[in-house]
TrEMBL record:
This is POZ. It comes from the Eukaryota. Residues 13-22 have a biased composition (Polar residues). It comes from Glarea lozoyensis (strain ATCC 20868 / MF5171). Residues 1-12 have a biased composition (Basic and acidic residues). Residues 30-94 form the BTB domain. Gene3D superfamilies: Potassium Channel Kv1.1, Chain A. InterPro entries: BTB/POZ_dom (IPR000210), SKP1/BTB/POZ_sf (IPR011333). The lineage of its organism: Eukaryota, Fungi, Dikarya, Ascomycota, Pezizomycotina. Residues 1-22 are annotated as: Disordered.
Length: 271
């Protein structure tokens, strides 16, 4: 039976059916995997699809022929669970949890940037490595601090030669030596001497930088373009000339794609 409908009738549907652009099952998947971390065997239960789409390392682990794929479980007994708290926060949200507070009475770091950077390096997650460096440098700039020398051993033990974390520490000491007297700033002469004595590689890096940069004005690493600390030196949001302070709104990592190389680029300071 034919029936006329008024095209102006609000009850007459002339629009295409709307679809929900967010599909939880498509994004997160229905399968779960278990990640067990540390000597205390801390358990993380994570959506497999999301994890594997975000981090190729886990895609190879859980979608390949490894035992982890069959058991849907992976163990990392030598790692610190706190780093995985940060890692999985980033996996689910795309940003890092706050690292520092402008409250100087609060602890400097809510999580360990060296450990998270090292984890991201081992799992080959350049976006996360960049985000960690952004948060670390911005936090130091806001608090008017430098990376602590107590981090030297951990940085040199857990990150590769030429890494952004090594270069940030090295350049900070270089800037402090050139601009501050021994009774000023974070690094006393005695503290630097002790750090050099305990880690000859660190000492060699700083001395090489000092000799290579003769008659050149040292740059405060907390104030240069943050992308100088990124993997491949890639500017992921187009702010190639942005200072660290101008980078505040992108700390935490906007996942803008960019070409990534296997080398680190750090301004003109190479060892």
């Amino acid at each position: 039976m034919y029936s006329e409908t008024d095209p102006h009738d609000e009850n007459t549907s002339t629009k295409a059916p709307q679809t929900n652009p967010i599909n939880f099952s498509t994004k997160f998947g229905n399968d779960l995997v278990q990640i067990i971390v540390g000597k205390e065997e801390r358990l993380f239960t994570i959506h497999k699809t999301l994890l594997c789409n975000k981090i190729p390392y886990f895609s190879a682990l859980f979608n390949g022929s490894f035992a982890e794929a069959a058991e849907k479980k992976a163990c990392f007994p030598d790692d610190e669970p706190g780093s995985y708290d940060v890692l999985f926060h980033w996996v689910y949200t795309g940003v890092l949890p706050p690292l520092t507070s402008d409250n100087l009475s609060a602890p400097k770091h809510a999580w360990n940037p060296v450990a998270v950077f090292s984890l991201a390096d081992r799992m080959i997650i350049p976006e996360l490595m960049d985000s960690v460096m952004d948060a670390w440098i911005l936090g130091d700039a806001v608090r008017c601090e430098y990376p602590g020398l107590e981090l030297t051993e951990e940085i040199y033990d857990t990150t590769p030669e030429g890494s952004a974390s090594r270069k940030y520490l090295m350049m900070s000491v270089f800037h402090m030596l050139m601009y501050h007297r021994s009774d000023e700033g974070m690094y006393s002469t005695e503290a630097i001497q002790d750090a050099f004595h305990e880690n000859k590689e660190f000492c060699g890096d700083v001395l090489t930088l000092l000799r290579n940069e003769t008659k050149i004005r040292p740059t405060d690493p907390r104030g240069i373009c943050a992308y100088n600390f990124h993997v491949g030196g890639v500017a992921r949001c187009g702010k190639c000339n942005a200072s660290v302070r101008e980078m505040g709104e992108v700390v935490g990592g906007q996942n803008v794609s960019g070409k990534v190389s296997s080398e680190y680029v750090f301004k003109d300071y190479t060892i």
